[in-house]
Amino acid sequence: MQNRVVRKSNKSSRATILLVLLVVVVIVAATVIRSLSLSEKRDELAITEVQLEQQLEEANNKADELAEREKYMKTKKYIEDEAKNKLGLVNKDEILIKPKDRDY
């Protein structure tokens, strides 16, 4: 009788060991899959970060250019240039010479 109990116990412990081993394999597999997924996501985010840094640099350069243009637009030179270009005005001591329109 005693041998029977021991045999059942061995079968039961083997099943338990196999079940635990199966659970460990499933957990390891899930961890590896998740790790690969996170690795791909990290690579995508690194590319996005580089692109955003480039966009930020371009935006900062544009802001600097606009600040310089704003400074220029507040000067007397800008007002004179605009009056000459858009309105055709000249200073008192200047002579305006315009080329003749040619018909080709």
Describe the structure.
The protein is mostly helical and 104 residues long. The protein has two helices and no strands. The model has no long low-confidence stretch (mean pLDDT 87).
Quickly describe the structure:
The chain is mainly α and 104 residues long. The protein has helices at 2-73, 76-87. Helix content is 81%, strand content 0%.
**What is the chain-wise order of helices and strands?**
HH
Low-pLDDT segments: none
- Count of helical segments? 2
Number of strand segments: 0
Helix content: over 70%
Average pLDDT across residues?
Answer: 87
Assembly classification = single chain
Secondary structure class reads mainly alpha
Largest sheet: none
Shape: rod-shaped
Rounded to the nearest angstrom, the radius of gyration is: 40 Å
What descriptors fit this protein?
about 100 residues, mainly alpha, 2 helices, about 80% helix, rod-shaped
